[in-house]
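fyi for ur records
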Amino acid sequence: MNNSILPFWKPIGTSSSIIAKRVAEKLNCKTSHTGTLDPLAEGVVVVIVGDESAFKENFISEFKTYEFGFIFGFSTDTHDALGLIENINSEEIYLTEEQVIEELNTFIGSYKQKYPEFSSKKVLGKSLWEYKRLGLEVPEVFIDGTIREVDVLDFSEISSTNVLNHIKHQINQIRGNFRQEEILKKYQESNFPEKFYELKVRIQMSRGLYVRGLARDLSEKLNSNCIILDLIRVKDGEIEKKDCLDVNEYFKEEILKDQNFLFPEFKKL
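which gave:
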């Protein structure tokens, strides 16, 4: 393994930037990382240490691989479970596996994607999510990328009650200012159909593309509300889970002194 990098397996709740910051404090050196993962996501985060952190472009892999589920039945303003519910399908909506896969496969190859409004992409010094949270008009910004592989793992109808209980459990693991109370209240007040559809996939896509953006675009093609759930970055380039450090083990002494060591309060707007 390259001595300039430390690969970690990020659990749900903490963030890529917090892990990099805590490594910098522990090793008393500069750090950076090669790609943000959303709060509800887990998976490979590569931290670059020392002087090489200033040249992180040299360490960023062109392609990253993700496993996750598309949940068809409702949508949120973030296109994942940690967002305010916007629309809910009627029970009459019917999707087939063939229909969903056919539309998903149209994204293979060159893919021009609009950044999600809740994303860390900066425009004029502000992240897009800051524009959104401040009630400002969110600039439209696009990225040209590639989806190289799509492997379908499963397609099924699933109980909405089970999905919603799972989502609530995950949201309760999140610390910081992510509108959790408002989001959970909206879940509680909303009326859902008895069943959702779920398509589980493994996708390899180029750096910079958002899985959440793909969910938004696929839902538009299918005319069916959709979010992503259980997002895992299984590979960053060729680095996978077996190559990664466990954050709880790496920071064992620090966490014993402060249980919130990896979960500081994020800035409020």
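The two ends are 40 Å apart (CA to CA). thats all i got for now
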